[in-house]
Amino acid sequence: MPSDAIAWLGGSYFRDEFAALGHRVVHIPMAATEILDWNTLVARTGGEPAGVIYADCSLPPPLVGMERFPCPTVFYAVDSHIHSWYPMYAQGFDLVAVSLRDHLPRFRQRLGEGRIIWLPPFPLGGERPPDRPPVKEWDILFAGKVDPELTPGRHALLREIRARFPGLAVRQGKFGDLFPRARVVLNIAEAGDLNFRVFEAMACGACLLTPEVGHGQSLLFSEGVHMTTYPPNDPDQVVARACALLDAPDVREAMGRAASAEIDARHRPHHRAATLAQALDALAPNTVADRLAKAGAIHAKYLRLVYLHWAEASDDPARRAAFLAAGAVP
Known about the structure:
It is built from 14 helices and eleven strands.
């Protein structure tokens, strides 16, 4: 039976803000071992969904057969700097929202104008400046996990920075609690991506020192106004620019205020929800019908190799069988 619900799979992101725009959303969390086809999705939604949104949770392909889904489909791709198969997989959807701007051309294969949009990161945790600014405890703070195996670049850079600036603090915890207690918040982009931490630090009103990356960072924020940047993987410049900020408290405070105001003006979850909703509304009326008519070709050209790759990579017999079935010639 048809439903008016949007099936939202995977990460929550701005799900609630999207629902607040007037959509009935059914959230379907994804376990790492799940592979959903249309019939399973209908059962989990409580009826045939009016639309399907897969919000990236950095798993192997969680949906199969979406080239034949009879409703609009969306892929919100965040981790394209980690998963090189995303652009191929994305061709099975009607609309793709890409977090990293420089990767947009990779997704332009069968998807044309209006079918791929840039949807930058935002403060995931709803971070905001504290009502009462706390006493500053650290000159330079990096907040996040540091592991020589999982984040080797981050681990190495922090080691080099500490050798030059022994007062560097490294902590884990809620960003909203940690960032306001630092004079300078350091960000490291392990894979050269424009990461969520940029937006979370700014949302707290922190003075942010972050690497020069592409992906539209310089289009969204101004150097010396909202943030200070450093050449990637350059510990000497990290310390030099951090020390310049430490010597200029008025500059730090002004930068934090400007950054927080910019986040509130353009980069909260409701801004991303509105952008996605507008792109969905702007899809041509024949978008789904056109995809259905070309479903066989889409599967053969783009999706089949993705499924067969994951069948080979999987060490679980059930998952291997499911991906082999998805990759079979119809």
